[in-house]
From TrEMBL:
It comes from Streptomyces achromogenes. InterPro entries: GlcNAc_PI_deacetylase-related (IPR003737), LmbE-like_dom_sf (IPR024078). This is LmbE family N-acetylglucosaminyl deacetylase. Keywords: Zinc. Pfam families: PIG-L (PF02585). The keyword Transmembrane does not apply.
Length: 247
């Protein structure tokens, strides 16, 4: 039998200056995207984060009132490691984020505020590669982000945003979905991988609740494993994969 052909991933577009990453929880970006974000900020591009929740339901041993502020602090520190200074929280409730007009409106507002050419989000499909069930928050936020990229450019959808001073922004050229089972593009993670590990390690409270493994061993093993696996389809270089939707 002949070996199946491995489809090579294409390089991500580089002719852009501003990006907005929209995800559900603190740590969502650090489980894979942050090496790419480090490379982009190193190149002088602006990247901002908008998180639907503060991750307040994410640690069983911490009540939400204590957990939310701690995870917010960890997220801001984590973003700073890869050159991101703007981190917004949209204040939807962790664990019960609902897809619908309210979520789309909040994400469209963030897009209008930051006026990105590239929008980044996380896997919006029901499963992770048909192997593990995805969480409702990821599905809702990913799908709403894809829709809000169009909503942001239409003044008659959520006209109250114009009344708030947020003019339509039709400049989103791509939405890049991380964690997709069908990626199309990738970013070389070589230069940003160490900072990606450091960035994930800022989520220490979450990691220590998640696993008994030593945090650095856990973070390094997870991120290098994923990057090297993606690299098999990207010239042998460690990489971060995205499914790219053009607008």
């Amino acid at each position: 039998m002949t070996e199946p052909t491995i489809t090579q991933l294409q390089p991500m577009p580089e002719d852009w200056r501003r990006a907005l990453a929209v995800v559900a929880h603190p740590d969502d970006l650090e489980y894979g995207c942050s090496a790419a974000i480090a490379a982009w900020t190193d190149a002088g591009r602006e990247v901002a984060y908008a998180l639907a929740t503060r991750g307040e339901a994410g640690i069983d041993t911490l009540a939400p009132a204590e957990c939310g502020p701690q995870r917010e602090r960890e997220q801001r520190a984590s973003a700073a490691v890869v050159g991101v200074s703007t981190v917004e929280f949209l204040d939807h409730r962790d664990g019960v984020v609902e897809y619908g007009p309210a979520l789309r409106r909040d994400i469209a507002a963030a897009i209008r505020r930051h006026r990105p050419e590239l929008v980044i989000t996380l896997n919006h499909r029901d499963t992770w590669g048909g192997v593990a069930w995805n969480t409702p928050d990821h599905v809702a936020v990913g799908r709403a982000t894809l829709d809000a990229a169009g909503d942001a450019g239409n003044r008659w959808i959520f006209p109250e945003l114009v009344e708030q001073g947020l003019q339509p922004w039709n400049g989103v050229r791509w939405v890049a979905v991380a964690g997709s089972a069908t990626p199309t593009h990738a970013v070389d993670a070589s230069a940003g991988l160490e900072r990606a590990v450091d960035s994930l390690l800022e989520h220490r409270a979450y990691i220590e609740a998640l696993t008994d493994e030593e945090p650095e061993t856990y973070a390094r093993g997870f991120l290098t494993g994923v990057a090297n696996s993606v690299g098999e389809r990207f010239g042998g270089r460690p990489a971060v994969a995205f499914e790219l939707f053009a607008r």
